[in-house]
Amino acid sequence: MPKRFVVAASEFTDLPRFPVGFELAEALTAAAQHLHGTATPDDTMNTAVALAVRLLPDAEHAGIAEIQRGGRLRSLAWTDETVRFAAEPRQGGHTPGHIPHPHWERLWTTPVVRTDDSEADGGGNVLSGLGLRSALSLRLRADRRRLTVLTAYARKPQAFDEDATRVGRLFTAHVSLALDSATVREQLTEAMRTRDLIGQATGILMERLDIDAAGAFESLVKASQRENVKLRDLARRIVDANSGTGGRGVTER
Questions:
Q1: Which of 10, 135, 146, 205 is disulfide-compatible with 216, CB 3.0–4.6 A?
Q2: Which DSSP state fits 62?
């Protein structure tokens, strides 16, 4: 699993802790600015979990997890290792593929689910074993294949009431928008890099095979299909080979 940079909630000194009333509107505006100032989806999610602990009443920990149809899941961001263990069965020593939060399945059809007391919940032993009595799970994204969930945790039972739920829903609306924006920016950046890479590879083939741009691109596409390799990866291989960093180029067959 890739190492993730964790943003401490204490870094957001411009945000009051557990704001209410007009202060809440100002805090959500400031939180949105922090979220939209992130560069990548990973940064957005790391910032979101730190902000969740700051904004949601009684929240002590927070994490974001992705659940796939069939129960497979992975942690995407967390405030601390306790949250990571709570979300990931393999890390927590539980059965792989088993969702440790039995109520998460309901998030396919409802935007929020609360666990009032994990010790009183027949399926909440994973949480109670970690000393986490309450959980507030909020849906960030959902499609036919996967579900992305932000969950806040507390060590006391019945920590999250209707007010916390309302704040959570307002906050996750901002998180979802920022996450979508960061995803689009990342995709556009990758598309530009791919375009430049393919352009470099086409130029190399034009010189190497003494053909025009259209012929070089066609050669690249045919080689990609023949070798069952993505066009981007083949282009990178050609550019690397031309610069002497290794890899194989396109050969005519």
A1: 205
A2: E
In the chain, the percentage of residues whose pLDDT exceeds 90 is 53
State how far the alpha carbon of 55 is from the alpha carbons of 12, 60, 139, 192, 194, in Å. Answer: 10, 10, 17, 37, 39
Instruction: With cut-offs at 50, 70 and 90, classify the pLDDT of residue 7.
Output: low
User: What is the model's pLDDT at position 8?
Assistant: 60
The Cα–Cα gap between 169 and 117 comes to 21
Distances (CA, A) of 179 to 68, 104, 121, 200: 18, 21, 32, 31
Gap between the Cα atoms of 237 and 227, Å rounded:
12
> 230: exposed, middle or buried (C-beta count within 10 Å: 0-12, 13-18, 19+)?
exposed
Q: Give the whole-angstrom CA distance, residue 249 versus residue 246.
A: 9
Q: Which runs of E-coded beta strand occur in 17-145? A: 61-68, 73-78, 112-115, 134-142
Architecture of domain 9-186: 2-Layer Sandwich (3.30)
DSSP 80: S
pLDDT for residue 24 is more than 60: yes
Asked if 235 and 197 touch (Cβ cutoff 8 Å), the reply is: yes
The candidate with the shortest Cα–Cα distance to 248, out of 199, 193, 204, is 204
Q: Where are the domains of the chain?
A: 9-186, 187-243
- Residue 238: CB atoms within 10 A of its CB come to 25
Instruction: Determine whether 126 is exposed, middle or buried from the number of CB atoms within 10 Å of its CB (0-12, 13-18, 19+).
Output: buried
Q: What is the DSSP letter of 109?
A: T
| Fold type of domain 187-243 | Arc Repressor Mutant, subunit A (1.10.10)
